[in-house]
Amino acid sequence: MRHVISILIENEAGALSRVVGLFSQRGYNIESLTVAPTEDPTLSRCTILTLGDKEEAEQITKQLHKLVDVLRVSDLYGDGGGLERELVLMKMPTPNRNLREEVRSLCQIFNARIIDVTQELYTVEFSGSSEEVDNFITAMSGVTDVLETVRSGVLGILRGNHYMKK
């Protein structure tokens, strides 16, 4: 089962290392990891996607609460539901007009954007749930070769009036 764990941590050296170390010590795999400062420059939001059963997710969140740099922890799906998004950038060859038109058409269907164009290549940007990103990559791979793919990892936030603050 997928668990998207959102962590509010102090934005200081070593904080992320302690969080990642906890996963490593317990033998839990991190499928994706995204970290960036929040609206408060002293804090960072860390979003981790991991796989495991409900008991493992509860164990992880309990252990994370014990870390001194961690202020808040939330399993986005265990705590009332969350919204998730992922960004993908893809580079593909478009050597002829027909292929360029097919890529543009597919981008329009998926609401993706072409962000860079050369005579031989398109670079495309798409964001959506992890499943939507997978579907986009599969669809685009059916039209043309994909030369390079870069995924951001999952970002998540709680739904509705729930939010994480210091």
The total count of strands amounts to 9
Strand content: 35-45%
**Element pattern in H and E:** EHEEHEEHEEHEE
SSE class: alpha+beta
Distance between the termini: 29 Å
Fraction of residues in H or I helices: 25-40%
Question: Biggest β-sheet: count, sense, barrel?
Answer: 5 strands, antiparallel
Number of helices: 4
- Unreliable stretches covering 5 or more consecutive residues: none
Calculate the mean pLDDT score and round it. Answer: 91
Alpha-carbon Rg, integer? 19 Å
Name the overall outline. elongated
What's the helix and strand layout?
Blueprint (H helix, E strand, L loop, with lengths): L1 E9 L4 H12 L3 E8 L5 E9 L2 H13 L3 E6 L6 E12 L3 H14 L2 E5 L3 E8 L1 H14 L4 E4 L3 E4 L8
Antiparallel strand pairs: 1-3, 1-4, 2-3, 5-7, 5-8, 5-9, 6-7
Please give a structural write-up:
By secondary structure, this protein is of the alpha+beta class. The chain has helices at residues 15-26, 54-66, 97-110, 130-143, and strands spanning 2-10, 30-37, 43-51, 70-75, 82-93, 113-117, 121-128, 148-151, 155-158. The strands form two sheets. Strands 5, 6, 7, 8 and 9 form a five-stranded antiparallel sheet that branches. The chain has a four-stranded antiparallel sheet with strand order 2-3-1-4, with helices on one face. A hairpin with a 5-residue loop joins strand 2 and strand 3 (43-51). Helix 3 runs antiparallel to helix 4. The longest helix has 14 residues, at 97-110.
